[in-house]
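User: I'll paste a sequence; please echo it back and then give the predicted structure.

Assistant: Echoing your sequence first, then the prediction.
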Amino acid sequence: MKLIHTADWHLGQTFHGQERHVEHRAFLDWLLETLEARQPDALLIAGDVFDVVNPSLRAQEQLYGFIVEAHRCLPRLDIVMIAGNHDSGSRIELPGPLMRRLNAHALGRVSWCDDGSLDAERLLVPLTDARGETRAWCLALPFLRPAEVTGNRRENAPDGEHEGGYIAGIQRVHRELIEAARHQREPGQALVAMSHAHLRGAQVSEHSERPIVIGGEESISAALFPDDIAYVALGHLHRPQQVGEARIRYSGSPLPMDFSEVNYPHQVVEVTLEGETLAACESIAIPRAVDLLRVGPAPLEKILTELEALPREQEEPPERALPRERWPWLEVRVELDAPRPDLRHRIETALADCPVRLLRIHTRFPTATGTGHDPRVTLESLGPRALFERAWQESYGTAPDADTLRDFDALCQEVLHQAVPEEDGNP
């Protein structure tokens, strides 16, 4: 059977304040065409479907409109979707009863039985072939939040199972789910795990991937997926990559989420299974609907020269002219000796009649001196944790200890992932 693995759609993302609905619409149209051409048996969406826990109505319309259209074009296609760290698990699961009528399964949370064991059955999704026969089982494991995997005690649990907190809880969930899948499957049926996590040894993006685990632990081991798992479909990291083995892969995001991802080869992965084993993986490149351009870093005069050399709108023949919503996004990185109040005006003047959309001007002062902060570091480039550590250092003259950082990380997770949906679906 054939599967298509994708992840990290981030529907509804705003790019430095600008909406990207056109780009997401182009990707979903391309994906639908690819599904029709490739005729897979299942589509796996490995988390971060939305960019925020309370996505806009338009972002939700894009997702559910796509699912309806995919079912219309491929009535036997199984769609399995899990929540990522950007998603609200409750929101992802909310339309579940309706989605199941479209052969779509949405898993947003883990739950526990009265005896403290994992409710594994709800996380096991049968994947069927064109004749409706179950050929594989998908272990659909959404992003695991600390409150979901800590504090659940099971009678007769092995010694030490409840030690280690969050990471031990993650290991336990994987172990119990895999064991349940082994009992569920029949000979000849493959096991396919889908997870939204950061695996040790994988490469992260420069700015765009939010840390997702607590207490300074930045990754989990690929050893959580034993050899009898034929394929591991991962989400969270935006760079397409395999982790140690060909069967353990991040598909990557379909769009660059930040200028640091401008050179990523965005893709989906076609997976072919033969019986219980992986037969082949093929990367399918996603065409980029809107280009990203970076100019610099360089001194201002050189930047202005480069900007003035960009093609002008009137130079393009009418048949090749792009509509404004398809103009490239532009980031300009300027090195300055001192602040320039007229900086934006000069850059915009150099871009007159140029079919680009200036999204960001990043300035740095490489010749600045002083004993304080790195002069090239800006508030925009700091994450919440680094900002907290700097503030603590300035206030108390020492770095925060491990317990304080653990509490701060837990508070950040609570703020980032708490969703209180309103009736109209907006915050």
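The chain has ten helices and 17 strands. The two ends are 41 Å apart (CA to CA).
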